[in-house]
Amino acid sequence: MADCIFCKIAEGGIPSKKIYEDDEMTAFYDAFPQAPVHFLVIPRKHIRNIMEIDAENSPLLGRLLVKAQELSKELGCEEKGARFVVNCKEHGGQTVDHLHIHVLGGRPLGWPPG
Ligand code: AMP
Ligand code: ZN
Q1: Which of 17, 38, 53, 105 would staple 29 via disulfide (CB 3.0–4.6 Å)?
Q2: Dist CA 2 CA 70 (whole Å)
Q3: Among all ligands shown, which has an atom nearest to the Cα of 31?
Q4: CATH of 5-105, one of 3.40.50.300, 3.30.428.10, 3.40.50.150, 3.30.360.10
């Protein structure tokens, strides 16, 4: 999608610190990290948010989640764990309208969210 910052990151038009990419997804470090480990996993396809997940594209979401947990382990989160977050729309705190999984780790995180 023309004006989407994460589509541009996936296409390489905007620089990012890439951790992983293949033909259907890319993972890169968050520009404003909220924890010692903070990266995002996104589909290359422009899916706006998790409300657009259905029976057809849910296998892709599953693969995104598996990659998120694999990368979290590679980045040292296996023993103590991490948080896997998908913000959605206004009340969910979503600021970029391209589906992304946040992975935050490396420190204890509070709950509930504010
Ligand atoms: P959300 O608020 O769930 O939509 O998360 C969007 C995330 O994207 C935020 O944590 C931002 O810090 C991050 N972000 C925004 N622009 C960039 C960028 N150019 N490179 C990396 N991360 C970004
Ligand atoms: Zn997009």
Answers
A1: 17
A2: 30
A3: 1
A4: 3.30.428.10
